[in-house]
Amino acid sequence: MAVSKVKQILFTPLARKTLCLSLSSLPSDQNPTKTLISTAVSILRHQRSKSRWSHLQSLFPKGFTPTEASQIVLQIKNNPHLALSFFLWCHHKSLCNHTLLSYSTIIHILARARLKSQALGLIRTAIRVFDDSDECSSQPPKIFESLVKTYNSCGSAPFVFDLLIKACLNSKRIEQSISIVKMLRSRGISPTISTCNALIWQVSRGRGCDAGYEVYREVFGSWDDEINEKVRVRVRVCPNVHTFNALMVCFYRDGGVEKVEEIWAEMGEWDCNPNAYSYSVLMAAFCDEGRMGEVEKLWEEMRMKKMEHDIVAYNTIIGGFCRIGEIERGEELFREMELSGIQSTCVTYEHLLNGYCEIGDVDSAVLLYKDMCRKGFRAEARTVDGMILLLCNNRRVHEALKLLRSYETLIKGFCEEGKMEEALKLQSEMVGKGFKPTLEIYSAFIDGYMKQGNKEIAETLRKEMFETQMQQEEN
């Protein structure tokens, strides 16, 4: 049904006539081009793979025109792997100077067979070879027009345009992606929901939440402000929970709590049911504003809907209570989580540790930190800072010094992973607290820079390490 609608709406009679002339208009049975095509197709279909290619090359040493190559792959389109092999063989042997026509034909055949990765690869190549426009251009790539013209003859499906949009997104051609979606929508055709979501997410990340929201309205429709009643202009595809989750996360990270609530309400207007992650995002927004009463209502609403509280939801609500000093409620939820069989994460422990530090409960903080280390979790520098300050304020400097070794462990870990900037930040924090780097830390930095090939810095640090060692021996 979708294919027939595209054929009726997207392509004009003139385009079909032009395509027919360019691909299949042959004057008689004696036409040499027709003979060439039928011979090549026969060899491809009936000969073994080892002999077919050498036989083709011996019969057609001058190769094929793009139109001939297109006709050949069309006649073997029910064997898309063979069609692709022929297309690539012609290219590698320089037997066909492929144009937009031959590229479009093979892309349609691969898309029709749902050979996604192969089709995407050829679309990217076509964009790179035939498009001289930059990433900021809003003009659709030339392959788009060619795909439209060859659509009917190849018996294609709208999925091919989803692949084109994704290829543009992968190449950071956001404006072109938006233009293609608009042109398709103007003809009553919508890309799949996953493609629409990918476009919205990419725009939101690259240009901000408001830009992403505008694309969302463009793709799925918007409220008409010129009339009193709210009328939703809908297209065939509707947003799903992942659409709204992406928008909510983006606005939440940008601090737009009101916008998060607005999108939550809009989800209901589309009769779209939120999932556990949707609830977690809204709860996180409320937690940041200390609106724990509303968070608990959402928590109970999830329970009433028999929606399982996952680790993200637990971490969110535990963190919210710890931030406002209600550590006992956080502990209660922590125990409930473990009894439910949900494994805690490093984030769970950090929320509780920060809560204990906030209320000055040093004993609980130390016990929890030891439990955290036993489970193999590694606290962030900010959490370690809070612990050291709490211990020093309670005159437990010796324990604070032991804890400081966590910095050394973190620095070594970053150096081993090649994350030298992160290691340097931690080193600066240590120096800022009055602690000098140890020989182990020097060695970690030297090894890290040597792995990166930065011998100059490594040699400088080695000299500095020897000078430090000499000073320590003199003292």
What do these coordinates show?
- The chain is an all-alpha fold.
- It is built from 26 helices and no strands.
- It is extended, with a radius of gyration of 31 Å.
- Residues 5-29 and 223-235 have low confidence and may be disordered.
Uncertain stretches of 5 or more adjacent residues: 5-29, 223-235
Helix percentage range:
over 70%
Order of helices and strands: HHHHHHHHHHHHHHHHHHHHHHHHHH
- Structural class comes to mainly alpha
Distance between the termini: 86 Å
The average pLDDT value, as a whole number, equals: 83
Count of separate DSSP helical elements: 26
Largest sheet: none
Cα-atom radius of gyration: 31 Å
Portion in beta strands:
under 5%
**Coarse shape:** extended
Can you tag this structure with a few keywords?
mainly alpha, single chain, extended, 475 residues
Write the layout of secondary structure elements.
Layout: H1 2-9, H2 13-24, H3 32-46, H4 49-59, H5 66-75, H6 80-92, H7 100-112, H8 116-130, H9 142-150, H10 159-170, H11 174-185, H12 193-207, H13 209-220, H14 241-253, H15 257-269, H16 276-288, H17 292-304, H18 311-323, H19 327-339, H20 346-359, H21 362-374, H22 381-393, H23 397-416, H24 420-432, H25 439-451, H26 455-474
Helix pairs in contact: 3-4, 3-5, 5-6, 5-7, 6-7, 7-8, 7-9, 8-10, 10-11, 10-12, 12-13, 12-14, 13-14, 14-15, 14-16, 15-16, 16-17, 16-18, 17-18, 18-19, 18-20, 19-20, 20-21, 20-22, 22-23, 23-24, 23-25, 25-26
Short description:
With 475 residues, the protein is mainly α. It has 26 helices and no strands.
